[in-house]
Amino acid sequence: MRKLFLSLLAMISFQFLFAQQNSLTQFPQGSAPNNVGKRLAYHFVDGRHELYAGRYIHYAEVCTWNGALDYAVKTRDQKLIKLLQDKFEPLFTREKPLLPPMNHVDYNMFGSIALKLYQVTKDERYKKMGLAYADTQWEVPEDAKPDEKAWADKGYSWQTRLWIDDMYMITVVQIQAYKVTGDHKYIDRAAKEMVLYLDELQRPNGLFYHAPDVPYYWARGAGWMAVGMPDLLLELPKDHKDRPRIMQGYLTMMKSLKEHQRPNGMWNQLIDEADFWPETSGTGMFTYAFIIGVQQGWLDAAEYAPAARKAWMTMVSYIDERNNVTEVCTGTGKKNDKQYYHDRPRNAGDLHGQAPYLWCAAALLGK
């Protein structure tokens, strides 16, 4: 009788675990990641460049480009890969003036898409361009300010500024440089920076203020950390000295995010404010962090897989008939005023929102 009971218990446990795993693989047609990803990726290909003040490629475009390419590779969509290459090709010639200068954390992350394209095509032009952006993030210019030189003297990027955005902007290009070259200096740089930012910016509850002097948990700001940590952990060697600290920061944040998820699966513009509006870019970033954590076994599937599924299913309902993600908070500088965050404009089709949706779609497609 005892053996039968244990056998039944094991079978129930297996079925339960299988059901949790399936919750991130089985979706209705309209919510299937391959369908959603295709809609958004082809929409991106057809769009115009998003520029900083009409001058340089914006980081939000690079984020979306990365997501579209990840989706194309996962689905082996050769047509889409070619279209993404074709979109980049003029940047070697007539659109070269649109290339961001290599003098700011938001500009240097452009190198990540060049390095991703190199991994797909093996075209050396992409590698040369991408590594230049990765390397100049640590090469101190002659006209660097004293505080920039001080960061470099401590082994950090001279572009360090302790804004939470940086933990995607810095890590994404350094990670890709590591993947292309195998040179550990790139992954070591990213890990060292991440530990600094965690030690300086993460609150005891695992979340992050928009800035030290702005005590509000803005969703998209926190989202850059939520994405940067698992992306770094995916590539960081298991025996790397900084891995335990980064994993601790990631798990602490995920626990807090789970507690603040709204009943419909979304997260609000300010994470801990129940009367604020559901915001899609932050929700997409947090969902991506959950998906990767469940897939890698860092997060308990029984707890986090249903949360990720619920978020994804609701996220899809925010895509309009033009394949634009709606309810995306516009670009937002810090301000010590809660009403300011509540009243921020909401855009449809803003690439800050299109990007994390593509990251989620690609992640849900598995390896």
Layout of helices and strands:
Layout: H1 2-22, H2 33-46, E1 51-52, E2 56-57, H3 59-75, H4 78-88, H5 105-108, H6 111-121, H7 124-136, H8 146-153, H9 166-181, H10 184-201, H11 219-235, H12 243-260, H13 280-296, H14 301-316, E3 328-329, H15 338-342, E4 346-347, H16 351-364
Antiparallel strand pairs: 1-2, 3-4
Describe the structure.
- Pfam families: Glyco_hydro_88.
- This is Rhamnogalacturonyl hydrolase YesR.
- It comes from Chitinophaga rupis.
- One of its GO terms (molecular function) is hydrolase activity.
- One of its GO terms (biological process) is carbohydrate metabolic process.
- 60% of the residues lie in helices and 2% in strands.
- It contains 16 helices and four strands.
- Strands 1-2 form a two-stranded antiparallel sheet. A two-stranded antiparallel sheet has the order 3-4.
- With 367 residues, it is an all-alpha fold.
- It is globular, with a radius of gyration of 20 Å.
- It has one domain (30-139, 151-364): Glycosyltransferase (Alpha/alpha barrel), CATH 1.50.10.
- Helix 7 packs across helix 9 (166-181) and helix 13 packs antiparallel against helix 14 (301-316).
- Strand 1 and strand 2 form a beta hairpin.
